[in-house]
């Protein structure tokens, strides 16, 4: 199995003896022979702390799998497991609103 990794840093903020960075890690596993590649993306947050000797060390690391939003089970049950055009539009609108709300202000 071959592995490929990529890190996307969205932002790094430094506040005194603390620094915060967040973004995505992408991991791709590819079989050496035939087969489909598997790619996962995780979101991460690192909190760094400057030690007394002036070196930066990771104090806290958090991550979670970045999965697409899912329809609530009760909505899927009402639809019989299929999405209508109106539901797809509603999902797109919610994703857009979530994306706008998730914009991080620039404090630099």
Describe this structure in words.
This protein is an alpha+beta fold and 108 residues long. It has two domains: 1-67, Roll (Nuclear Transport Factor 2, Chain: A), CATH 3.10.450; 68-108, no CATH class. 22% of the residues lie in helices and 46% in strands. The protein is built from two helices and four strands; from the N terminus they run ββββαα. Strands 1-2-3-4 form a four-stranded antiparallel beta sheet, with no helix packed on it. A hairpin with a 2-residue loop joins strand 1 and strand 2 (18-30). The longest helix has 17 residues, at 85-101. It starts with a strand and ends in a 7-residue tail after the last helix. Mean pLDDT is 77; it is low at 101-108.
Largest sheet: 4 strands, antiparallel
Task: Give the CATH architecture of the largest domain.
Answer: Roll
Q: What global shape is seen?
A: flat
Which class do the helix and strand fractions yield? alpha+beta
CA-based gyration radius: 20 Å
Number of helices: 2
- Could you please say which CATH topology of the largest domain applies here? Nuclear Transport Factor 2, Chain: A
* Distance linking N and C termini: 42 Å
Mean pLDDT: 77
Helix content: 10-25%
- The strand order across the widest sheet is 1-2-3-4
Write the element-wise H/E pattern from the N-terminal end onward. EEEEHH
Strand tally is 4
* Percent of residues in β-strands: over 45%
Poorly predicted parts: 101-108
């Amino acid at each position: 199995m071959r592995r490929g990794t990529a890190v996307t840093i969205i932002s790094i903020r430094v506040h005194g003896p603390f620094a915060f960075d967040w973004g995505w890690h992408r991991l791709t596993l590819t079989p050496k022979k035939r087969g489909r590649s598997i790619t996962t993306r995780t979101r991460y947050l690192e909190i760094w702390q400057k030690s007394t000797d002036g070196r930066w060390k990771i104090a806290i690391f958090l991550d979670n799998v970045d999965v697409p939003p899912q329809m609530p089970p009760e909505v899927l049950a009402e639809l019989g497991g299929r999405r209508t055009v109106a539901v797809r539009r509603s999902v797109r609108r919610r994703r857009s609103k979530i994306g706008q709300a998730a914009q991080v202000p620039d404090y630099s």
